[in-house]
Write a structure and sequence with these properties.
Elements: H1 4-14, H2 18-31, H3 36-48, H4 52-65, H5 70-82, H6 86-99, H7 104-116, H8 120-133, H9 138-150, H10 154-167, H11 172-184, H12 188-201, H13 206-217, H14 221-234, H15 238-261, H16 266-294, H17 300-303, H18 306-332, H19 335-344, H20 348-353, H21 361-385, H22 392-420
Amino acid sequence: MSNAHFQRGLLLFQQGRSRDAVGELQLALGQNADDPTTHGILALCLEDLEQYAEATEHAQRAIHLAPDEGFGHYTLARVMFGRHRYAEAQAAIDEAIRLDPYNPGYFGLLAELHLGQHRWREALEAANQGLEIDPEHQLCTNLRVQALIKLGDRAAAAETMGEALARRPDDALTHANQGWALLHQGNPQQAAVHFREALRLQPDFEWARAGIVEALKARNFVYRWLLAYFLWMSRLTPNVRWGLILGAYFAQRIVRTMANNSPQLAPVLWPLLFLYMGFVLLSWLAPSLFNLLLRFDRFGRHALSPDQVRGANVLVACLVPPVVSLVAWLITGWMILFWSTLLFLPLALPASAVYVCHEGWPRRTMAAVTLGLAAAIVFVLAVGALEAQVPDAIKESALALLGLLPWALIGSQFLAMALVNVTPTK
């Protein structure tokens, strides 16, 4: 294409400079407003900048101008994928592949779409189809590795990754992929090396940044075991994860009943229950707690994302009241301060999940639940502190609320586990 603005815009886009590319591509459209390729590249740039409404308009314009070419449908699929509108993205990429079944990049996006929906085998099949067209296609190679890791085939993943690194040792995605593969293998130190290299090559690479945070936290042997559990759970489908969580919850209820009804088994069952509850509590608190510890690390504090810093701050804010209450109770002996410690301490559980939830309504919902629980705790404590001046009806309400609080806290954690897995559309 002879349009110089388009050529510069395309080069900037290929260099990852989407913001600079937008201006050139808009100038190109000023010279040729009906070029579908320019509209398509501009849509990809705008999607990268999270300007989804404009990106959608240009992708649809590209399709309108060239409905029989796969590229416009591919750009719409990419935009819809970025907006987490998976059904629309699936329809668009299926049409792109129908029109052009020999483009490996289209199969790469299809593999990404399947991975985003926890369909590991379908993702592997799509990546393999892309590699049949181009055996050295870097995106399909990396997506194949991700699918193999999720399916538990570490040997095949390692072989594929080794070939990819040999072909392109300067590719940030490949190094990040290798880092995550090593985390799954329980080797955080070597994983950190690849994450650092990925960030050197692409400083704003979010996936590599998230990986190096996990690798740094995994230097602690407690978190290393928890990370192995988290990664194992991530390889399961959502339905299987929920089945395991609910199964474990009802199993511990049965074991608790057995411990209460069978004194001869109680010395064995109660320690098991305490270990289980300790593990559950630690798994809920661990992300924010270890992010907080990482803030004191010279390198780690720079690797944390803004949300991870906010989550650590919220955890501190939730731990201060119970600690202050405990110290004050030990000094004064005032029982309401003891109850303040007991009631405020569990509030750290739902609060620590707020910034783990995706931005949007899931995060707002979790924040509202946490604030609601905090308000209920303050109400109960205020009634207890002013007992002599409070009418009997309000006392009864406070006692009823006190009885509901443990169940509300447990329910908030099940809600948190559900909200963490929700990706709102954009």
